[in-house]
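Usage

Read records sequentially. Each one opens with the input sequence:
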Amino acid sequence: MGDDVPFAVRRGELLDRAIAILSTDSRFSAGWLEGSLADGSADSYSDIDLHLCVVEKSWDEVWNNRREVIERIAPI
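and closes with the structure output:
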């Protein structure tokens, strides 16, 4: 990552943090990237299009607490 701009470095760290946190949360059965990061066309300033599959019985809890779920990864 030596040539990456600071935004791309922080983006990578954010993705690593999201994976570490969300992969241990049983409310999420899957997660995937879409957009430029998924198709390989991302540049140093591309955003993160992260999609999550929420276990049906946890949907209301996750939706009602979505801000807290996100802030476990990064402040809003």
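Summary fields computed downstream for this record:
- The beta strands are 28-34, 49-54.
- The mean pLDDT is 94.
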